[in-house]
Structure formats: structure tokens, C-alpha cells
Amino acid sequence: MRASSALSKSRHAAVALCTGLALTTGVLAAPAQAAQPAQPAAPATSPEAAQTPALPSGRTQYRTLADYQSDMAALAGRRPDLVKQVTLPHRTSEGRAVTGVEITDDVQQQDGKPVLLITGMHHGNEWASGEVTMEFGHDLVANHGRDKRITRLLDQVRVLLVPIVNVDGFVRNTRRTATNVDMNRNYGFGWSPNEPFPGSAPWSEPETRNVRDTISSRQVTTYLTMHTCLSNMLYPPLQLKAGLPQDIDAFRSFADAMGTQNGYYHTTSAEDYETAGEVIDWSYYATRGLGVTVEVCTTPMGLPRTFESLVPDQYWGVGPNAGKGNRGAFLVAMEQAADRAAHSTITGHAPKGAVLTISKDFDMWTNPVPQPDGTSRPVSFPNRLTSTMRADERGGHFVWDVNPSVRPIPPYQADGVHGNRTGFLQESWTLTCARPDGKVLQTLKLKVDRGKSVEANLHECRKLFHR
Ligand SMILES: [Zn+2]
Question: Where do the record's region annotations for Disordered lie (predicted)?
């Protein structure tokens, strides 16, 4: 989309919009073709497009910010039992709210379900990434109680959709934020000042901290970050020297399963193009939840980029993927999020009404960063993961779907980059059992690996709770 001669070494050169490679040439982002001003849909440009069903919302053109906001409010208004509006903790640098919707059965409960997070528009000019995210919300609400698979999955999984994380960029139709930072180079883990537009420091942008805090305060067992326009899916590492992640087999099988639906190929992000400071790298090494970048684009990729070819065709699938598409990939991601063999569970018997919290604290590091004294060294930043559930249901017996406490040893360390790590940090969750007023009655450490379950013995909490 913004090809330059510098891109020719990449086999995806002509369309490497998302990698930001063209930005290294200093060329300002031209409005992406996908982000043309809202207008009635162009006539279908391919035989397949003519057969694609209408979108779940019935829309035929790109949304404005007001359209996204009214859609989310309407879904929550129609089904308050199923849809809850969420406002992320930080306003954008221009003061705009960043909002999303949570969708699950009994959505108001703090019920300990695993979370599938889908975000759109880290890059504000990649409009189709927000459209498919929002359409999935319409689809889930319309099919709850009608479609057996969707009804079952909404009983098991909490879906959090945030269609526009870079709201200022969307409003301006620019890749970067209003502060001219590429959000997807601003995440602290492995952050490098050598990347194009990485921000003044790791986590310098409120938009980036929003995504960090959203993931840190929930058990996001599966995460999709939507972009345009490459027709592929990417997972860690971001840099070849970091080596493959410990859970590479899990990443590959998950991406394979999604690929049978959307028809996209998958590879490591580093093999596509090397970067640093992207969300999928931080989220995996901090939480061990699987995060995948999905680059929505036409299939085949050379087609004209219209609303039809990028949104309805890619939502429902075309050609050999007709009836599957990214909708099918999202449903696979819900199944991945629900799969207890792919995360961990904490079980126990808690006093009815007790508030259970798990947390862990640890430091992570950037790539080496030049220092005032002329040396270069990694900079650390703290991470705090904490989430809460209430054992109100099922008579106090609970099963809490969580990410493993055992965490992959990260390639970015205090003394530099160490690639091809194979080990894990034998960390534990700290679990507290408290009264609703916050009085902690019991604290225990729980170590749990991927695919495993651990029993929390809350005898002490039960004994003290009603005194
Ligand atoms: Zn992008």
C-alpha cells in the first residue's frame, strides 16, 4: 500500500503497510486505500464478492467514531444480560475515551471465565480491522440462543471487543497517534528507540498503557490484534535474535486452525519483518496467553481494496473460504480461549460472597537503550497482573480459568538479549480470599502450569468469613 524501494527485500513488499517499513524512509503516512471517506459501497469487484452475505449489522460502508459508539451502546441496551460497555482506564492524548464491549452470559458477574480479547486499529488508518471486530459483536448478540456453537461458547468465554484502540489516529485517519507515535512499537518489552516512531520511552503513550492495563487486569487466555493489509497471521518473536517462543507449537496449531477459516498463512513476526515493542510480544511473555496479529486483507491479496473486498468478503470468507472467513477464525479463537488444556484453572470452595484475587509482580526489560553516559543497557519496567472473581455462583465452589503462573523466560533481560530460551520461570500466583469490604482473610501461593489445575485450600477463609 505504501511501497518504497526499501521494501523490495521483503516478499510482501508491496503491501507491507503494517510493518511500518515504509516509515523508515521518512515518508508520512498517506491515507490507506482502505480508509477512504465513508461512502456507499462500491459495486462488487469480484464474482465471489457478489455472493457474500450481508454483514451482521447490515452496514454497507465504513463506520465513523459516532457509529462505533452508537453500535456499542445499542448492543448493551438491547441485551444488558449479555453485553456490557467498558471504558479503558486512560484517555487518549487528545482526551478521547477508548471504549469496548464485553459479551458473555451473565455479563455483569465476576465469574472467572477465560477472556478472548480482540482489538482493532492500533493503526488508525486500518479501518477494516475495526469493522470486522465490531461486526463480530453484532453477530454474537444476534446468534446467542439461536446458533448452538455460539450459545455454548458465550457460556464459556468472555469476549472483550475494543474496535479502536488508537482513537485519535482513527479520527485523523493516520497510522500513528496524535503524538506521532506508532502504538505498536511503544510496548515496553523489548522496546527499542531504533524503531520508527517508538515514543519517547517504553509505555509513553496512554493508548499503549490502556491495552497493557486491560490485559493485566483480566485473564486474557487468547488475544487477537487486528490490522490490515497482508492476509496473514503473525506471532512472536519480533526479532530473529530473540529466537522462538517456548510455546511455538501452540502458536502454530492455533494459527493453523484459524487459517483453515480465513485462508491466511502464518509465520513468526520476525520472519515477516523484524520489529520491536509490539503488543503480542509483551502479552505473551508477561501472561503466557497466546496473542496473534491478524492482518486482514483481500484474498487473493491483489484485489482492489474496497469496503466489499475488505470487510464483508473478509468477514464471511470468499472462494474456498466462503462461509468461514475471519468470522470462523474468531470462533476458533473463542474455542482456543475456552480450552482448559491451553491455559490453567484454579478450583476451590470459597465462602459465598467472598472476593478472590490473584496477582503477580515482576520486572521486564527493553532492548538496550543508549544512556546519558554513552553506554547502552536495557531498562526495566514493572508489571503487575491482577484480577478478581466472586464465588457467588454454584454454592461457593468455583473453577477459575486463568493463565499459567509458570511463565516463559523472556529473551530480553537485564544484561541484553538471549535468544532461543527453552525454560520457564517457576512463578506462583498470590491468591487472596477477602470479605466484600476488602478485609483479607487468607493468602496463599499457587503454582500452576499450562494445561494444569490447582486446588486452592480456602479452609482458613471459610472459617473466618462469617465471624
Ligand atoms: Zn497495522
Answer: 38-57
